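Chain A, query sequence.
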Amino acid sequence: MIGKSILPCALCVVFSGAGFSTAALAESGVASVYAYKGGKTASGERAEPGGLTAAHKTLRFGTMVQVTNKRNGKSVTVRINDRGPFIRGRVIDVTPAGARALGFSGLAPVTLAVR
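Chain A, predicted structure.
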C-alpha cells in the first residue's frame, strides 16, 4: 500500500487568505483517472476529458496544482474544478489528458504542490 502524508488543506485556505504563499504546501497519495459520464463538474463547468483539470476534496475551485508522478518524475499543472475523489487513500482525480501527461492509466503515487 502506498503511504500518505498530508498537510491539512484547511491550512491552504488560512495561509492563502493571510497573504502567505501556498506553493510550499504539499500532499502525497494516490491519483486516479476520472470516469467521465458527461455533464457538469461541481464548479458548474462542463466536464472535459481533454482538459487539464482535476477533482480535489477541499482545495478551492480554480486552484492550480502541480501533480508529480512519483514513479517516473513526470509533472503536469492542473486546475481544480470538481470535488472528489471519494475513495480512501486517493488525493486527486485527474482527467484522462492529465493522466496521459503524467504517464499513467488507472492509479499512480503522486505528490501535489499548490501553485
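The first helix runs from residue 9 to 17. The chain has one domain: 9-114.
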